[in-house]
Amino acid sequence: MKQAMKLITTFILLCVASAASANPFPDGNAKAGQKLFEKYDCNRCHNSIMGGDGNKIFTRFDRKRNSPDGLIEQIGMCSGNVNAHFTPQETQNLAAYLNIFYKFK
Ligand code: HEC
Asked: How many CB atoms neighbour CB 61 within 10 A?
């Protein structure tokens, strides 16, 4: 019985640990990222590409970016579209915000 409790406790701890590491952008602040996204009107082009709701570009079935690294890379590319030079922190913030759509773990 004691052994079983130990196993269960270990299992629960493991679950908690993996949930804690599930965020690929732990240093990003999603709220700050959203502010940047709105300030730079990031969906300006995405809106017309997607025919209305630009956010759909992040969840479309054939979306281009399917990894946290890819998302970071795309933010770098699209920053040129808005003439911005995001700091690593700002990039993390944007990624944390966009991960609301991408849901990378
Ligand atoms: C001048 C137009 C333009 C602006 C402004 C723009 N983007 Fe983009 N964005 C694009 C285009 C074009 C694509 C690629 C669409 C494709 O290949 O189908 C894209 C794709 C993306 C994707 C990848 C979507 C996928 O398929 O996974 C992300 C993420 C992204 N943009 C983020 C941003 C962010 C963040 C900003 C603001 C800093 C921004 N974009 C501003 C044109 C723009």
From this structure: 4
Closest residue by Cα to atom 17, ligand 1, is: 64
Q: Tell me the one-letter amino acid at 61.
A: F
Structural domain that includes position 57 = 2-102
Question: Of 25, 45, 49, 26, nearest to 37 (Cα)?
Answer: 45
E strand map for the chain: none
The whole-model pTM stands at 0.86
Residues of the chain with confidence (pLDDT) below 50: none
Q: List the one residue out of 52, 34, 36 whose CA is nearest residue 44.
A: 52
Ligand 1: distance of its center to the CA of 4 in Å?
51
Look at the chain and report how many structural domains it folds into. Answer: 1
